[in-house]
């Protein structure tokens, strides 16, 4: 009997991020939360960076954040994105920062942003953001 | 533990490889040429080398370079600390020589990234790495995107202006105009920098370093091992190193670099303070980096480097001569500049820098950085004996 290839078999995930990308397929952004000290972290690790506990669980992020930094990319980098586009670091209200894109701008550092999703035909959708209220 | 004051260690030879566009050599032959020159300055040859340090010279860099040069070391390292690896290597070689684990350490590197056009813009997609999963799909340029995010945050947080960044590029160019080996020697004004196209805001083309071929070699030993030296040995007073993040989202504060640790360590070991530095050779991969290092190494307070360099402090004739070769911005950036920062510092301390010589240079600092948005840092303090 052969299992269908996992996302990690396909090089899309690794064994520790398989659940994250599966959640993306359902348009849920999940991050790790520590049961001992209640801090959140991302990307996932088998221990808490804050208190070194191994009591971690996946929780769904609320999908709200603040722009920590951003740049408008004006040269071609990958085929899927035609410049100019906005590359940003978004700090989730739970704490962790994500590298992401901001669509439907304009956006500035300090702006509030809301989770959105970018389809990638066949691959798990990507968590991106748009200005809150847009 | 005895201090290094009891066992002074020196850079006894330093040389550049061919620079710029090098169509007629391989990376290995380039290192061989520079290493021969650096060793001959010290009255030494390949057969005297018993420690080898390199980066980016293949999967097992020191093994591949050792084979090419006919060196079988008893101490070897090819750690990848990005462009700062060579400052890390000086730190490690200094300790290894002082501890008696080796006598003559060779540090070498060369790249033909301009001729080969082999610089990549993006991480390899779908290799399962964290960068492929969480960075590449968002179209981040490696490494300009990481550095642009750092520059944007730094400027936002501290009111640093594009003109402040442009002053760094102009200072580098003023030095390059005095260096016959520099790649870019045309006059450059603040307005010219501001008029160059945005690549990834706020970084403009002229905020970014060159892409050239090049490299270098340095030799580290006790002074008595270079008895027949043709050139004056330069003492290694101190060194330090650190690193922080690989993925830009993991950096807790993009306005602070690991130079805050490496500088403190190196200056502490050397017993100097920033005011003692006659020549500063910062790794100017992007203009705002130089501002961050000035703050992190304690030349000025956090957020004040823009004002600190105004009035031409880093330029020829300024109070803190910096990037005296023309730096990565105007002289040469062969993918990893760290080795050439050391070569230039040595030349300044020997008094052989020609038109760009800083008068009475006694203490020089080479400050390397590497990786993605200042992942790594290593600081080396050198002194004329
Ligand atoms: Zn915890």
From TrEMBL, chain B:
InterPro entries: Thiolase, Thiolase-like, Thiolase_C_2, Thiolase_N. Transmembrane segments: none annotated. It holds the Pfam family Thiolase_N. Residues 9-223 form the Thiolase N-terminal domain. Residues 240-383 form the Thiolase C-terminal domain. It comes from the Bacteria. One of its GO terms (molecular function) is acetyl-CoA C-acyltransferase activity. This is Thiolase. It comes from Kumtagia ephedrae. The lineage of its organism: Bacteria, Pseudomonadati, Pseudomonadota, Alphaproteobacteria, Hyphomicrobiales.
């Amino acid at each position: 009997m052969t299992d269908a290839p996992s996302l990690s078999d396909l090089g899309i995930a690794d064994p520790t991020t398989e659940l994250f990308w599966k959640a993306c397929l359902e348009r849920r952004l999940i991050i790790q939360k520590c049961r001992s000290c209640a801090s959140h972290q991302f990307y996932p690790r088998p221990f808490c960076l804050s208190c070194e506990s191994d009591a971690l669980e996946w929780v769904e992020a609320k999908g709200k954040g603040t722009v920590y930094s951003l740049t408008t990319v004006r040269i071609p980098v990958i085929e899927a994105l035609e410049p100019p586009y906005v590359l940003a670091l978004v700090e989730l209200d739970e704490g962790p920062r994500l590298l992401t894109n901001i669509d439907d701008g304009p956006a500035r550092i300090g702006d509030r942003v809301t989770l959105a999703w970018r389809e990638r035909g066949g691959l798990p959708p990507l968590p991106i953001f748009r200005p809150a209220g847009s | 533990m005895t201090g290094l004051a009891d066992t002074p260690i020196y850079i006894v030879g330093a040389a550049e490889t061919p620079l710029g566009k090098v169509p007629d050599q391989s990376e290995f032959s380039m290192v061989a040429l520079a290493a021969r020159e650096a060793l001959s300055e010290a009255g030494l040859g390949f057969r005297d080398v018993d420690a080898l340090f390199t980066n980016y010279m293949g999967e097992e860099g020191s093994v591949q370079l050792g084979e090419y040069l006919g060196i079988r070391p008893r101490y070897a390292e090819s750690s990848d600390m990005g462009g700062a690896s060579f400052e890390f290597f000086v730190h490690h070689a200094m300790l290894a020589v002082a501890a008696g684990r080796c006598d003559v350490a060779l540090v070498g590197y060369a790249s033909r990234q301009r001729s080969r056009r082999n610089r990549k813009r993006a991480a390899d997609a779908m290799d399962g790495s964290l960068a492929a999963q969480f960075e590449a799909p968002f179209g981040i340029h490696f490494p300009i995107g990481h550095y642009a995010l750092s520059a944007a945050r730094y400027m936002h947080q501290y009111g640093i202006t594009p003109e402040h960044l442009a002053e760094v590029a102009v200072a580098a160019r003023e030095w390059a105009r005095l260096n016959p080996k520099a790649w870019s020697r045309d006059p450059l004004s603040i307005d010219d920098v501001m008029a160059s196209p945005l690549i990834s805001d706020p970084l403009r083309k002229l905020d970014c370093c060159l892409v050239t071929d090049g490299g270098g070699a340095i030799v580290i030993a006790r002074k008595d091992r270079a008895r027949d030296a043709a050139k004056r040995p330069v003492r290694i007073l101190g060194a330090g190193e650190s690193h922080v993040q690989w993925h830009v989202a993991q950096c807790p504060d993009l306005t602070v670099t690991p130079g805050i640790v490496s500088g403190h360590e190196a200056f502490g070991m050397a017993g100097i303070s920033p005011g003692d530095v006659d020549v500063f050779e910062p790794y100017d991969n992007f203009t705002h980096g130089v501002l961050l290092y000035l703050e992190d190494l304690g030349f000025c307070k956090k957020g004040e480097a823009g004002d600190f360099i105004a009035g031409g402090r880093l330029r020829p004739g300024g109070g803190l001569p910096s990037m005296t070769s023309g730096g990565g911005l105007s002289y040469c950036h062969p993918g990893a500049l760290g080795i050439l920062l050391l070569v230039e510092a040595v030349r300044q301390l020997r008094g052989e820098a020609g038109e760009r010589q800083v008068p009475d240079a006694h203490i020089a600092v080479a400050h390397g950085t590497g990786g993605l948005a200042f992942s790594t840092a290593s600081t080396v303090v050198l002194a004329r004996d």
